[in-house]
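Weekly modeling sync, notes
Attendees: AB, CL, MP (scribe)

Item 1: holo prediction request
CL wants a bound-state model with zinc ion before deciding which constructs to order. AB pointed out that an apo prediction alone won't tell us much about the pocket. Agreed to run with the ligand included and paste results into these notes for async review.

Input as submitted:
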Amino acid sequence: MRAFCDYHIHSSLSLDGISALMEQVRASRAAGVAKICFTEHIDLDMPGGDFKVDFAEYARQIAEARAAFPGMFIGIGLELGDTTGTRKRVVALSNVLPLDYKLLSRHLVGGIDPYDADAFFAHRTRAQAAQEYLEAVWRSVVSFPDYDALAHLGYVFKFVQGKGFPPLGRADAPDVLEAILRHLVQNGKALEVNTSRWNAFGEGMPGREILQRYRELGGELVTLGSDAHEAGKVAQGFPQAAEQLKDLGFPYLATFEARRLVMEKL
Ligand SMILES: [Zn+2]
Ligand SMILES: [Zn+2]
């Protein structure tokens, strides 16, 4: 069995999740992933409303999955969407359940999710979008009090890549990007390689150039996350992403168990 670890998975417990939690576990096992962590959304004041989780049901389904698949590590985590205005409430919700993993995420930039690409890019050039997004990520990484890893750095272009928008690169906003990477390294925070667009674009978020810079700065903690909302997407792009990581000098994946860092050989 390949030692892949998928540390960014959603189930139908998330507002935008499609497959049931047990289905996601089965699909992970079939894909040869022995270690997974669910990261259901907590994201408040989103344009479509609040993303919250039924914590009691989440804990119950995780316990059920662990009992059904004793040979797998099945982690319970949260993807914590941060903004200045919602931070206090999100932090409170992040402390309700004992978690394996807290994944810090930034979706809203200036009150808009780049998922709504028409609205987001209507009044922004690429350079403005990158700068504004990275400044928002910077505020999150320095202000959010308690997290293990940063999700999908480069999300700002996720929904427009391939439409004249190459992935986020170092040239887009070098100073703030450098500040984010240095902060992660100096504070022992992991950087996620999100593979949700790998099959379409042959790169993760962040892409090779940014991962290389993180490594040059001394960063050693990388996680792999498919961001799968449905069973067919679990571990998508992992073999290629793993090769890229090894090539860049990351022999291990970071994983977390009860918030404790556990390195797994790639
Ligand atoms: Zn996300
Ligand atoms: Zn996600």
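Recorded for review: The beta strands are 4-9, 33-46, 49-51, 73-81, 101-105, 149-150, 190-194, 222-225, 252-257, 260-265.
Action items: CL to compare against the apo run; MP to circulate these notes.
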